[in-house]
């Protein structure tokens, strides 16, 4: 059986392909062309560690797949002497006619890219496509997700200013320096505190394990868009409840969000799925309204990207 390792995935998977795969997965969710239940979470007692299983089926000519991701989140990995990613994954894809496993694909890079791509798809359809300004991007949390969002969003949307804030300030400073050097720019700016980072920002990304709100309603400019990525025990810790009360909320999947966001009162402001906006069955919000994308992460996004990697791998292999 084929195993495609992380370095091969990093070699062959480009952001644009991930974006299209995730965009397609989101559309298919809202068309009912998927099967996907809330993931199972195995919480390891007396730790912050968790293992998730994420099975899914996606019907699509180009990105369709039957698969299952096994993903762990061990938040203290980042603090090891030799730091490791805190989120690690593998994705199995199975033959749709026989049910036999076709490949196991290393899923850490896929998870990294597809999570940021989901935010990017939401940002495109809820914000960028409505001629809203892409001037200032605020990133809260400069771990793996903060970094990929900073790079991918600048690449896709051309933000001239990308502000970086992190609980451990040195990490945000270092990332700003590193990215300015890498892209020969001074667009990446370190921010001393979260309030300064958010005030005046057009698009905001939260990518932390914070159990307490790091975004307050009064700091957000009218019409701004927020991608809330971070997940602690709940997928809605990072934004103060007043933010939810004063914004339109969009999700990747209503079915799976209802399980993992059950402690949040979604009734008033949950507008629906990003896929429905893409498909034109759900209207976008008025210009001055704040929008939130709370993407909890979907198995069918992993299936779509894993299928893309599988096909790319086979194209490359056959050419050799
Ligand atoms: N929605 C989705 O589909 C996905 C969500 N995630 C979630 O995104 C978040 C970030 O993941 P990732 O970047 O891979 O993880 P990393 O371990 O690389 O980064 C974690 C970040 O969270 C910060 N953080 C941790 N605890 C706190 C706290 N109490 N207050 C403020 N900041 C804190 C860390 O700051 P410091 O440097 O100071 O420790 C760091 O910036 C996680 O919650 C993860 O579960 C991940 C993948 C998919
Ligand atoms: O969707 C995922 O993959 C994850 N979501 C939340 C936490 C870790 C991985």
- Look at the structure and name the CATH superfamily of the largest domain: NAD(P)-binding Rossmann-like Domain
Spatially, the strands of the biggest sheet line up as: 10-9-8-11-12-15-13-14
Q: Total domains, how many?
A: 2
- Ligands and ions found: NADPH dihydro-nicotinamide-adenine-dinucleotide phosphate, ligand LZCNNONV
Helix content bin: 25-40%
Gross morphology: globular
Structural class: alpha/beta
Helix count, DSSP H or I runs of 4 or more residues: 10
**Beta-strand segment tally:** 15
Beta fraction? 15-25%
Secondary-structure element series: EHHEEEEEEHEHEHEHEEHEHEHEH
Oligomer: single chain
Mind telling me the CATH class of the largest domain?
Alpha Beta
CATH architecture of the largest domain: 3-Layer(aba) Sandwich
Tell me the major beta sheet. 8 strands, parallel
**Overall pLDDT:** 95
From the N-terminal CA to the C-terminal CA, the straight-line distance is 20 Å
Low-confidence residue ranges: none
Structural features, described:
The chain is an alpha/beta fold and 320 residues long. It has two domains: 2-111 and 299-319, ornithine cyclodeaminase, domain 1 (2-Layer Sandwich); 125-294, NAD(P)-binding Rossmann-like Domain (Rossmann fold, 3-Layer(aba) Sandwich), CATH 3.40.50.720. It is built from ten helices and 15 strands. The strands form two sheets. An eight-stranded parallel β-sheet has the order 10-9-8-11-12-15-13-14. Strands 1, 2, 3, 4, 5, 6 and 7 form a seven-stranded mixed β-sheet that branches. The longest helix has 21 residues, at 299-319. The model has no long low-confidence stretch (mean pLDDT 95). The structure holds NADPH dihydro-nicotinamide-adenine-dinucleotide phosphate (NDP) and the ligand O=C(O)C1=NCCCC1. Residues 71, 73, 87, 111, 231, 297 line the site of ligand LZCNNONV. NADPH dihydro-nicotinamide-adenine-dinucleotide phosphate binds at residues 73, 75, 78, 86-87, 111, 115, 141-146, 166-168, 171, 207-210, 229-231, 295-297. Its EC number is 1.5.1.1, 1.5.1.25. Belongs to the ornithine cyclodeaminase/mu-crystallin family. This is Ketimine reductase mu-crystallin.
């Amino acid at each position: 059986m084929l195993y495609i390792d992380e370095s091969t995935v990093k070699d062959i998977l480009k952001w644009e392909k991930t974006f299209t795969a995730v965009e397609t997965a989101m559309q298919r969710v809202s068309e009912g062309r998927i099967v996907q239940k809330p993931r199972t979470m195995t919480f390891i007692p007396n730790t912050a560690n968790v293992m998730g299983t994420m099975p899914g089926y996606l019907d699509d000519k180009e990105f369709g797949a039957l698969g299952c991701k096994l993903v762990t989140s061990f938040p203290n990995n980042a603090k090891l002497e030799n730091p490791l990613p805190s989120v690690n994954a593998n994705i199995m894809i199975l033959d749709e006619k026989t049910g036999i496993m076709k490949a196991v694909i290393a899923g850490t890079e896929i998870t990294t890219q597809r999570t940021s791509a989901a935010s990017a798809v939401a940002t495109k359809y809820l914000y960028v496509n409505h001629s809203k300004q892409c001037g200032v991007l605020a990133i809260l949390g400069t771990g793996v997700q903060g970094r990929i969002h900073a790079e991918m969003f600048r690449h896709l949307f051309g933000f001239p200013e990308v502000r970086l804030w992190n609980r451990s300030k040195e990490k945000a400073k270092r990332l700003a320096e590193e990215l300015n050097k890498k892209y020969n720019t001074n667009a990446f700016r370190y921010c001393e505190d979260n309030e300064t980072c958010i005030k005046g920002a057009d698009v905001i990304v939260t990518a932390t394990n914070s159990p307490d709100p790091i975004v307050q309603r009064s700091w957000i400019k009218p019409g701004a868009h927020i991608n809330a990525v971070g997940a602690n025990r709940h997928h809605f810790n990072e934004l103060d409840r007043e933010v939810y009360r004063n914004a339109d909320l969009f999700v990747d999947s209503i079915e799976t969000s209802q399980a993992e966001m059950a402690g949040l009162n979604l009734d008033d402001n949950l507008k629906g799925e990003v896929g429905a906006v893409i498909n034109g069955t759900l209207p976008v919000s008025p210009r001055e309204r704040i929008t939130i994308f709370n993407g909890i992460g979907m198995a069918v996004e992993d299936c779509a990207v894993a299928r893309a990697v599988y096909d790319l791998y086979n194209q490359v292999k056959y050419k050799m």
